[in-house]
Structure formats: C-alpha cells, structure tokens
C-alpha cells in the first residue's frame, strides 16, 4: 500500500467527524451567547415592568418574584433549549425544522402557568410577555445555527 494513498483514505471519515464536532461546538457557543442576551433582555424587561408598577406578586405563597429570579429561570430554560438543539443536530435529519416546532410548542405550554397563577392582570400580562422575550432571542438564533441545505 502506498503511504501517499493512506492519508487520503483516512482523511474522509475523520474530516466528517471534525465537521460535526465543529458544528456542535459552534451551536453550543452561539447558544450560550444567546442565553446571556436572553437573560439580560428578560431581566431588563422585568425591571421596566416593575418601574411602571407591576409587582410580580404571585398569590400562591404571597411572594414577589425577584429580578434575579427572572435571570436564573431564563438561563436554565435557555440551556435546556441548547441541549434540545444539540440533540436534534446530532440525531435529526431536519434539526432546524424540528427545533422550531419543539421550541414553539414548549413556549406555548410555558404560557399556561402565568394564566393559572391567580396573579393580578398586570402581573399575569407581564409574565406572559416575559415568557416571549427569551423565546424571541433563543428560537431564531438556535434555528439559524441548525440550518442545513435540506431545511
């Protein structure tokens, strides 16, 4: 066997794995930057809502949601979104399409708890809006990172 040909044979599969690994890393990096942006945007929107009089008091326990709580919950569920996106990139033939469908469905489901919380109208409306803020940051960003020619 000629040593010149050996490198050509090995390069095919290895470069495919490298490309997949590169896409996964790029998706994760983009996702974490988007997570930070979503956390900031959601916390700023919550602060703005507080400034105009929304108290974020949830009657079940009578506690007020702190601004840091919005950042933490946004960060946690954004990372869950990244994990879903990575899994779809790894195992789905159409990861962007499946991700958008999944993320929009989960966002719609996330709108139910504020409606059931028993909070006043201003708090409920603000909470609904604050569920949509990170979704508008995360879903398009991750979907764009998942796009392939087939999508």
Describe this structure in words.
The chain is mostly helical and 151 residues long. It has five helices and two strands; from the N terminus they run αββαααα. The chain has helices at residues 3-51, 67-91, 95-110, 112-116, 121-146; strands at residues 57-58, 63-64. A two-stranded antiparallel ribbon has the order 1-2. A hairpin with a 4-residue loop joins strand 1 (57-58) and strand 2 (63-64). Helix 3 runs antiparallel to helix 5. The chain is elongated, with a radius of gyration of 21 Å. The model is unreliable at 4-13 (pLDDT under 50).
Index terms:
151 residues, mainly alpha, two-stranded antiparallel ribbon, 5 helices, elongated
User: What is the string of SSEs from the N terminus onward?
Assistant: HEEHHHH
The residue fraction in helices comes out at over 70%
Count of DSSP-assigned helices: 5
Q: Please, what is the average pLDDT? A: 89
Percent range for β-strand residues:
under 5%
Low confidence ranges: 4-13
Distance between the termini: 41 Å
User: How would the global form be characterised?
Assistant: elongated
Q: Main beta sheet: strand number and arrangement?
A: 2 strands, antiparallel
- Radius of gyration based on Cα positions: 21 Å
Overall structural class, as computed from helix and strand content, comes to: mainly alpha
Total strands: the figure is: 2
Query: What is the spatial order of strands in the main beta sheet?
Result: 1-2
